[in-house]
């Protein structure tokens, strides 16, 4: 473990800065070797990671594999495959006035990064941003969430065993350690978590003029049009919503369904919950638990006074909350004002597509948005008349499987992005370079200025 208390944090930052100054992290060879180690660390310890995720969240084997373990190995493979290309200068045109010459963007590492992760996908949300920071040639401090304590402990144990300890360190802990970390100067901070702490991170970063990437959340809408294939739609929504018991930043937060298919949609969704998790979801080995009793009580509290049509049961001791459907909640209720981040799915209806679009646009810009429809006009209207970090048409969160799609929010759901080349670019400075030759030193730009020189300049640009 690198840091047991906040006192050692400045020393760790100094160690990483000294490493960065040696230039060691700049070579493609070092980066690729370390990336291979990230993959090895994750795959060698699959069983330990799975067990930690189960202890923290009751996460089942398949969800641990797809969303945390294979997610990282795929991200590493993609990064290694493209790294040398990403590192190359990116040529741009050079104007006539600067000829002969060439212009390009030269990616260069930023220095020492800070990565603060959230608890819901506690391995992925720290290691995937680190893959990006590492690929760009940075040193980094990793701060996993203290709420997923088993995964945090395991990360602190494994990182020094597999990775270059002069270039990366894990700092465990909560507010005290994060506060101390944020006093330090970093060259980039990537934070994943809620809006309130996002503001704290951004304020602290401003003190050092450190750029930030904020991966936040929000209420992600899901529009179900009457033309949608309902059987496929409910399977995909149910999978996306109740994976990790709804504790997924891109899970549908609420449904907007065309009124004419409301009953059929609800019936099929109810049947799908039983298909997936049985009559007693509490007994399903595939159904996760809420991270802690504070969040359990918060989610249960959202159900007060609501029209619960499915589920609604909870057990504080095991932090279980059943897959729950709420029909037509008051848009002003806390359920519809706060990000749910749990297994409760409100269902609201609309009559015209414009109503659904208007409802979405009245709220903060979401992290994700989904529209299920065979009607191109409906899809087009929802897609082009609203704003969201990421969108999936006719599926839920499958954009996460494509490394060529950057992942990030807009407005209050975040700023900046990562994943694939977007991650490499986030942790790089694209240095703008123009190289000129000594040839053709035409003197029209030099004083003394004359009418003739100005005229010629005007002709050239
Ligand atoms: P959390 O409680 O784990 O907090 C996130 C991180 O912030 C932790 O590492 C924590 O130690 C740190 N932190 C807490 N208080 C702090 C403080 N005062 N100063 C500095 N750091 C502090 O996670 P959370 O906030 O409950 O996360 C849930 C939110 O995260 C949801 O809104 C969800 O949508 C969002 N989220 C977003 C993404 C994404 O990729 N965009 C992914 C997962 C979760």
TrEMBL record:
PROSITE patterns referenced in this protein's UniProt entry, alphabetically: ALDEHYDE_DEHYDR_GLU (PS00687)
Matching InterPro entries: Ald_DH/histidinol_DH, Ald_DH_C, Ald_DH_CS_GLU, Ald_DH_N, Aldehyde_DH_dom, Aldehyde_DH_NAD(P)
Catalytic site positions: 215, 249
Domain of life: Bacteria
A single GO BP: aldehyde metabolic process
Pfam short name (any one): Aldedh
Gene Ontology cellular-component terms listed: cytoplasm
UniProt keyword terms in alphabetical order: NAD, Oxidoreductase
Domain (Aldehyde dehydrogenase): residue spans on this chain: 6-433
CDD domains tied to this protein: ALDH_F3-13-14_CALDH-like
Gene Ontology MF term list: aldehyde dehydrogenase (NAD+) activity
NAD among keywords: yes
PANTHER family: ALDEHYDE DEHYDROGENASE, ALDEHYDE DEHYDROGENASE TYPE III, ISOFORM Q
Family of this protein: Belongs to the aldehyde dehydrogenase family.
Designated name of the protein: Aldehyde dehydrogenase
